[in-house]
Amino acid sequence: MEIRGKSVYFGGVALQELVNRFGTPLYVYDGAKMVSQLNRLRRAFTIPHQIKYAIKALPSLSVLKWLRKHEAGADAVSIQEVKLALHAGFLPHEIMFSPNCAPFEETTAAVQLGVQVNVDNLPFLEQFGKLFGRTYPCAIRLNPHIKAGGNEKISVGHSDSKFGISILQLDEIKKIVHRYNMQINGLHIHTGSDIADADVYLKMADIFFSVLDDFPDVVFLDFGSGFKVPYREGDASLNIEELGAKLSNMILDYSHKKRRMPELWLEPGKFLVSEAGWLLATCTVVKETPSRTFVGLNTGLNHLIRPMMYGAYHHIVNVSNPADQPENYTVVGYICETDTFGTDRMISKVREGDVLAICNAGAYGYSMASNYNARLRPAEVLVINGEPHLIRKSDTWDDLLRGQVVIDL
Ligand code: LLP
Questions:
Q1: b/e for 5-30, b at 16 or more Cβ within 10 A?
Q2: Domain contains 305
Q3: pTM above 0.90, yes or no
Q4: pLDDT in tens, 8-44
Q5: Which of 27, 141, 223, 275 is deepest in the core (most CB within 10 A)?
Q6: Do 137 and 246 reside in the same domain of the chain?
Q7: Quick check: is 9 in a domain?
Q8: Ligand 1 neighbour 53 (Cβ under 6 A)
Q9: How confident is residue 202, by pLDDT bands cut at 50, 70 and 90?
Q10: Does the beta carbon of 136 lie inside 6 Å of ligand 1?
Q11: Stretch 333-347: mean pLDDT, rounded?
Q12: 224 close to ligand 1 (CB < 6 Angstrom)
């Protein structure tokens, strides 16, 4: 964000211009910020690596195309995400497919499409072996029994999590792999999201190194993602440069000792797109009550569920009046359910009609949006080289009716 005079700029464009052109509520994304994050990640890791963008964070086709143009791969968790990636122009070998509890048919469909698949349970490993033997490689997702991540809901590498094959089941994995002479070309661990501690990834490397001898066909180690980005000033975030240096060194040391150099894979979602996206909404009412002053917005948990679902903090800025006297507000949505975006926030004086920006809305914002309360999902705009591009139209009344079957009564 940049404030010039009385205007707030985003990706080089005055936000007021975007609002005049596209209205609110509106998701806006800064393409340059995505690319600078991608390059930051690349610079941090000095060994051969691949960056697979986690589609689930922001699955817009134009964003996928933009990241592919900058040489990212794609990480998909459903067969539909695989197809979206292909549709956006990714080649099959650039896509990693890591489903969890999805029907096995999705894995075989992904094989037919030629993408890299990742298997996260023993029954599917057995089925994969039976069907493909050595004819098609797969990776294995391990559960390392590591507790990591910003909160309970997004911590997925611990022993009670549904994800991955427990590291304690290594013998069973090996038996299946030998029984069908399988080609395990990669090992994968993803322990959660919002991880600020680099040590988590170093522990993952130790686990990989401890089992690599058992998997001679492995050519890549996928460390998943979870890199924490700042959501507020002074917020803890993962020091990616420190992690990159340490992890690169560990892998280099390993490769010298073992004369084997697995490629490093990463699957960032938030790191690439969280800070690059804002949700713009208009203040519908400033409502004084005996206890507080509410700012009501023409958006709600139907467009951004993170504050309600995870208690996530999102910084809020009054972009129509950025430099006035700050006042204490509780910012809420228009949904008929409590949907508080921020409590007791000091925000530059808000008047009805002002546009507020909810920051860090690029990741898991639009992708988790719904039509709750029969509301329409907003449009999305991607700014590239100071040029705003509409990349998704807002929903229409027809979208709400689409698929509904009205029976004769
Ligand atoms: N790889 C795998 C296998 C994943 O499951 C995920 C996220 C990622 C990569 C990307 O993680 P990231 O870089 O975005 O932390 N909706 C939640 C986050 C759920 C993450 C699910 N998996 C939120 O808004 O905080």
A1: eeebbbbebebeebbeebebbbbbbb
A2: yes
A3: yes
A4: 999 999 999 999 999 999 999 999 999 999 999 999 9
A5: 27
A6: yes
A7: yes
A8: no
A9: very high
A10: no
A11: 98
A12: yes
